[in-house]
Write a structure and sequence with these properties.
Elements (H helix, E strand, L loop, with lengths): L1 H12 L3 H18 L1 H11 L16 H12 L3 H11 L2 H10 L3 H7 L34 H13 L3 H14 L2 H11 L10 H10 L4 H8 L5 H10 L17 E5 L11 E6 L3 E8 L2 E6 L3 E2 L5 H7 L6 E9 L9 H4 L10 H6 L2 E11 L8 H12 L7 E3 L2 E3 L6 H14 L4 E6 L9 E8 L4 E12 L8 E10 L2 E8 L5 H14 E5 L2 E4 L4 E6 L1 E4 L7 E4 L2 E5 L11 H14 L42
Parallel strand pairs: 1-11, 7-8
Antiparallel strand pairs: 2-9, 2-10, 3-4, 3-6, 4-5, 6-7, 10-11, 12-13, 12-16, 12-17, 13-14, 15-16, 17-20, 18-19
Length: 622
């Protein structure tokens, strides 16, 4: 991994796109010289992952496993590692620092030393001989890329948390300090060095003297960066084709609160904007896979959807959304769907408690690629194919044609209000003559979703960001008033310019009254106006509520802290959502009786690196 880590060091240290591309291209070319296997792993790590998007088995590794593994290797208490990760703002940086403390004395200076188990104490029964901790004197000499691939495959196969922990420990024990930083970041899917997307495509083109346009075109149907790099190295990018069981880049809708650009009503349809999980359904020969945007294959979480399409003739690829459905067939909010996500085999009671439906709104393959076909033709094929799918777990999402006899703004407003009345987030406007532009966000699809409301809130705490924002306080916790005290209702990360963030950092540093690791508790002084998409119940915040998808609209220096909103406003907004069906009130629990709990493993703050700091908003907004 050494040439790769040099490139990542350069990419993280510079804001120059040219320098990033040059460094990454060099790493790709050097990996290719060692073989296509090394090249594939190198490209995937650069994209912030260890496996291909089409790999069916998730690695199942979160921040708590990494903390435990690092503790096994370096003999440092887990609590210290987690605390250091919070201070540095990144678990990969904390592990790298720990691995860099090579000597026993250095470890004693940074933490209380505990005994390091030898290989005989690891729980890797049945694994290859190489999956053992090397002797202390042979550790941290370097982890070859080919071994990274083997470790990733072993992690996907490992059935138990303990085995996964030991595999990660073996990997960390073999990495150098610099390698451990990026191995952990990629393992958790949180590389954050400014390499993803366009930079990686440019680097692939530069490394192999390929046309950038060809690389970009191929990347829409070959979403595995490893396979894409191999095609470029071979000079066969033109051979990239959409195929079943290989995710296709999603076409995205441009967000707008109101559509200002001219619209040809005769060529426009309107669909409801759903509040679920965007997912591609791939089916052929009785095999069904469901690739969720940003979450990999989630078919195991939704067995009823898999069953609905198991008999479908293939190859077929659909685009749609998984939605939780109530007993009266109305959509339930995203929060109702969350218990189904991430479960490899949901129990029958949960399937009955949270029924779901796959709403298909496009078809990308039906024996042949349909990406170049206009929406109208794809829609006809979609409806024809789903006539044979007789299941309550699947249906075609309806659409509406707007009347040309009325002003567009009036017709759109009516469609928007109707979608909201049906319990959906808003609407998506689509041109019927447009092809499926995989991987693009353009004018052919436009989603209209207006902010639910805004609140004036007071900043109560702040943390440093990640990546290029690690040097500034860019993550703001905020609250509203309740009985003369501020109670938190959310955390926002977006909406401000770099200059505003720098200015707020200086103000917050001066207002800090207490520091807990990376967290700055601040004197109530700064008022923000935040926009958000809804209010939901929360056990995390002392207010009992959390704003959904909050973003900072502006800094309200014209307002005093006491002018901010109080909890009664939040309660009123939540009640209005419940009355309209856009939010659910949690069922009452009998006094003296605790609600049933599903068994869970002990963990250190969560399943991802961010669990060590604070949970970010979840959900798919496309």
């Amino acid at each position: 991994m050494r040439s790769l880590t040099r490139a990542l060091d350069t990419a993280s240290a510079t804001r120059s796109r040219i320098d990033k591309v040059a460094a990454i291209a060099t790493a790709l070319a050097e990996a290719a010289a060692r073989g296509e296997g090394d090249l594939a792993v190198c490209a995937r790590i650069l994209a912030g992952r260890l496996t291909a998007p089409s790999d069916g088995s998730p690695l199942g590794v979160g921040g708590s496993i990494v903390v435990e593994a690092a503790s096994l290797v370096r003999g440092v208490p887990e609590a210290w590692i987690a605390a250091r990760a919070r201070q540095l703002g990144d678990l990969g940086d904390a592990v790298a620092e720990l691995v860099g403390a090579e000597t026993h004395e250095a470890r004693r200076r940074t933490a209380h030393h505990v005994d390091v188990p030898d290989a005989r104490q690891l729980r890797l029964s049945g694994e290859p001989d190489q999956w053992t901790l090397p002797p202390e004197a042979e550790r941290h000499r370097g982890l070859p890329l080919r071994d990274v691939a083997e470790i990733a495959e072993a992690l996907a196969r490992a059935p138990a948390r303990e085995s996964k922990t030991d595999l990660v420990a073996v990997a960390i024990a073999r990495t150098t300090a610099r390698e451990s930083r990026y191995f952990v970041k990629a393992l958790l899917g949180e590389l954050r060095v400014g390499v993803r997307g366009g930079v990686l495509e440019e680097a692939i083109a530069k490394a192999f003297d390929a046309s950038l346009d060809e690389v970009r075109a191929a990347s829409t149907v070959e979403t595995d960066p490893g396979a894409l790099a191999i095609l470029a190295a071979r000079g066969t990018l033109a051979a990239a084709r959409a195929r079943v069981f290989s995710p296709i880049a999603f076409m995205l809708a441009s967000p707008e609160e109101d559509v200002a650009a001219p619209v040809d009503v005769a060529l426009t349809v309107v669909e409801d904007k759903l509040d679920g999980v965007r997912a591609q359904l791939h089916a052929e020969g009785g095999v069904v896979r469901l690739f969720a945007r940003g979450q990999g294959d989630v078919a195991h979480s939704f067995p009823e959807i898999v069953a609905a399409f198991r008999g479908a003739a293939g190859p077929m690829v659909l685009d749609g959304e998984v939605l939780a459905i109530s007993g009266d067939q109305r959509p339930r909010p995203f929060q109702a769907l969350q218990p189904r996500l991430g479960r490899t085999a949901p129990e029958a009671s949960l399937v009955l408690e949270v029924p779901v439906r796959y709403f298909a709104f496009d078809i990308l393959m039906d024996g042949e690629s349909l990406l170049a076909e206009p929406w109208q033709a794809r829609r006809e094929r979609l409806e024809a194919r789903l006539r044979d799918v007789a299941s309550v777990a699947a249906s075609v999402l309806p659409f509406t044609k707007l009347s040309s006899d009325r002003p567009f703004e009036e017709a759109l407003s009516e469609a928007y209000d109707a979608a909201r009345a049906r319990g959906h987030e808003g609407v998506v406007i689509k041109r019927v003559d447009a092809p499926y532009e995989a991987g693009r966000r353009g004018a052919a699809w436009r989603k209209v979703k207006r902010a639910f409301a805004t609140l004036d809130v007071v900043v109560t705490a702040a943390e440093r960001g990640h990546g290029r924002r690690a040097a500034v306080l860019s993550d703001y916790t905020f609250g509203v008033w309740r009985d003369g005290e501020l109670v938190d209702v959310g955390k926002a990360y977006s909406g401000l310019t770099d200059a505003e963030i720098v200015s707020l950092t200086e103000r917050i540093e001066a207002l800090t009254v207490e520091r807990r690791g990376a967290l700055h508790k601040v004197k109530p002084s700064i008022v923000l106006e935040v926009a958000f998409d809804g209010v939901q119940r929360s056990k995390r915040h002392p207010s009992g509520f959390a704003l959904r998808f909050p973003r900072i609209a502006r800094i309200r220096d014209d307002k005093r802290p006491e002018d901010a909103n109080d909890i009664h406003v939040v309660e009123g907004l939540f009640a209005a959502q419940v009355a309209s069906g856009h939010r659910e009130e949690e069922p009452e629990v009998d006094e003296g009786k605790s609600p049933p709990r599903r068994p869970r493993r002990r963990r250190h703050g969560g399943d991802s690196q961010m669990g060590l700091f604070a949970a970010r908003a979840t959900g798919d907004d496309d």
